[in-house]
Amino acid sequence: MEKFQTNIYLNMPDLHFSRFCEEEYKVNRGIYNTIEQWFYNQGVHNIINRREVILNFFLFVRTSQNSNKKIKFGHGGLTDLLNRFWCEYKVAQ
């Protein structure tokens, strides 16, 4: 998977970055916070690296859902997608 390289988004203040995710990927703040916490728990402690991983995760979900619209997770779907992405992402590293 290609890494997200846009430093403009990675260096935004937290509120602006979460709003960008909400506007671009239609992910509410609660889901965003859950995703961010999940990657932090996986050891992605550097904020810039974590944001890069989050954006790559959103691209992964869009690709897997074949959609450029709102990302949908469904019951238990978020954890499943996070785990699938993390396995593929770690292999690509």
Please describe the biggest sheet, giving its number of strands, its sense, and whether it closes into a barrel.
Answer: none
Low-confidence runs of at least 5 consecutive residues: none
Quaternary form = single chain
**Rg calculated over all Cα atoms:** 12 Å
N-to-C SSE string, H for helix and E for strand: HHHHH
Separation of the first and last Cα atoms: 9 Å
Provide the domain count: 1
Helicity, as a percent range: 55-70%
Instruction: Please tally the β strands and state the result.
Output: 0
Proportion of residues in β-strands: under 5%
Tell me, briefly, the overall form.
globular
Number of helices: 5
* Chain-averaged pLDDT: 88
Describe this structure in words.
By secondary structure, the chain is mainly α. The protein has one domain. Helices cover 69% and strands 0% of the residues. The protein has five helices and no strands. Helix 3 packs across helix 4. It is globular. The mean pLDDT is 88.
Annotate the secondary structure layout.
Blueprint: H1 7-10, H2 14-25, H3 29-41, H4 47-65, H5 77-92
Question: Which descriptors would you attach to this protein?
Answer:
mainly alpha; 93 residues; 5 helices; single chain
Q: What's this model, at a glance?
A:
With 93 residues, the protein is an all-alpha fold.
